[in-house]
Amino acid sequence: MSTSPSPTTVPEARARIDEINERVVELLAERQAIVDALCELKADADRTVRDPEREAELLAHVRSVADEAGLPPTLAETLFEEILAHSVERQRRQRADGAAGPSAAGPSAKEPSAKEPSAKEPSAEEPAEKATGAVSTCGAQAQAG
Questions:
Q1: At what angle do helices 73-100 and 52-69 cross, to 10 degrees?
Q2: Reduced to 3 states, what is the DSSP secondary structure of residue 129?
Q3: Which of 44, 62, 116, 139 has the fewest beta carbons closer than 10 A?
Q4: Quick check: 62 and 76 in contact, CB under 8 A?
C-alpha cells in the first residue's frame, strides 16, 4: 500500500504512525460529515436511522477488505462497530434536537457516555425514531465542531 521505504529508526517509525493517525482522523471527520448529510436524506425520506441490513453489508465488506489487506478481520469489524454505534447515536441525537426545536441544536450537544448497541443488536427504539415532521437539524452540528 505504501510506496515509502520502511522506517529504520524508532523516531522515524513513530513519526510515520503519527502521520497515519492524522489521516485516519481526517477520514473519520469526512465520514462524519457524510453521516450528517445522510441523516438529512433519511429524515427527508421518512426513513429510520438504523438499517440493520446495510450495517451487516458494511461489516462484511470491511472484514473482506481487512482480510485482503492483511489486517485481522475481527479488528476491523470491532473498530467499525464502534464507528457505526457513534454514527447511529449522532443521528438519533440530531433527530431529537430537530424534534425539540431549533434551540436544542448546536455545538453544546453532549457526546453519549454509554456505548450504543452494535450493528448486530437491533434497538427497541428503532420504530419510534421516524422523522416527526419538525425541521431536521441532522447536519447542524457538523459545522460547529
A1: 150
A2: helix
A3: 44
A4: yes
Measured distance CA(66)–CA(61) in Å, rounded: 8
* Percent of the chain predicted with pLDDT > 90: 61
3-state secondary structure 33-95: HHHHHHHHHHHHCCCCCCCHHHHHHHHHHHHHHHHHHCCCHHHHHHHHHHHHHHHHHHHHHHH
How many whole angstroms separate alpha carbon 77 and alpha carbon 36? 22
Contact indicator for 66, 72 with CB cutoff of 8 Å:
yes
Are 86 and 31 in contact, with CB atoms under 8 Å apart? no
Is the pTM here over 0.85, yes or no? no
Cα separation, 67 vs 78, whole angstroms: 14
| In the block, residue with C-alpha cell 485482503 | 68
